[in-house]
Design brief:
One of its GO terms (biological process) is regulation of DNA-templated transcription. By secondary structure, the chain is of the alpha/beta class. It is 39% helix and 19% strand.
Length: 226
């Protein structure tokens, strides 16, 4: 899952990037509001973590501009501004969550997963398709309730498809989900990962829509409820 981190403090930003990567996120990090606005407008991120006290463009202005442009990417504000008026202003400006520094990384990762899940209309943490289940928090995939070992890229690709169950994703869109800055992408990387997933799980799990991309079937309503 690829997210954008907008934080100007080098020590905090480095710690957040490293910690979120340990929780399975692909993290791109920028250090000013102008760059944050520009990257958010690209629409390639599952979510963003946004500081407010940023150089060049304040985080509140970043929020206002991307929401005015119609961008629906979930944004979690992470800031030292802890007053109730600040929280109200941030949420009214379009933040999907508002967290005061310092924050526990476990909590931050859980909040990001929840934001992404809600943005994709997934009410449950556990994702299901056919007899395959995926737990984003534990990063475990099961086939008929039996764990299946996947590589990091295979897990991330399957998660992207299952979050978007019933929707066709192009190869380019899947590459954007899988790779943050600084990673070279082989021309057939997505196809190779999909081949491995079909072999390890179910061939019918990932459907090829010729000339368009790939999709997984949407789980019947009620499946996966506790």
């Amino acid at each position: 899952m690829r997210i954008l981190l907008v934080e100007d403090d080098p020590l905090l930003g480095d710690g957040l990037r490293a910690g979120l990567r340990q929780h399975g996120f692909q993290v791109d990090w920028v250090r000013d509001g102008d760059a944050g606005q520009r990257e958010l407008r690209s629409g390639v991120y599952a979510a963003a973590v946004l500081d407010l006290g940023l150089p060049l463009l304040d985080g509140m202005d970043v929020l206002a501009r991307v929401r005015a442009a119609g961008l629906a990417t979930p944004v979690l504000v992470l800031t030292a501004r802890d007053g109730v008026p600040d929280r109200v202003r941030g949420l009214d400006a379009g933040a999907d969550d508002y967290v005061v520094k310092p924050v526990d990384l476990e909590e931050l990762a859980a909040r990001l997963r929840a934001l992404v899940r809600r943005a994709h209309g997934q009410p449950q943490e556990l994702l299901r398709a056919l007899d395959v289940s995926l737990d984003p928090a534990a990063r475990v995939v099961c086939l008929a309730d039996q764990p299946v070992a996947l590589s990091t890229r295979e897990f991330d690709l399957l998660q992207a498809l299952m979050l978007n169950a019933g929707r066709v994703l192009s190869r380019e869109q899947l590459e954007q989900h899988l790779y943050s800055w600084g990673h070279e992408v082989d021309s057939n990387a997505v196809e190779v990962h999909i081949h491995h997933l079909r072999r390890k799980l179910r061939a019918a799990l990932i459907v090829t829509v010729r000339g368009v991309g790939y999709t997984v079937p949407r789980a019947p309503q009620g499946l996966g409820q506790p």
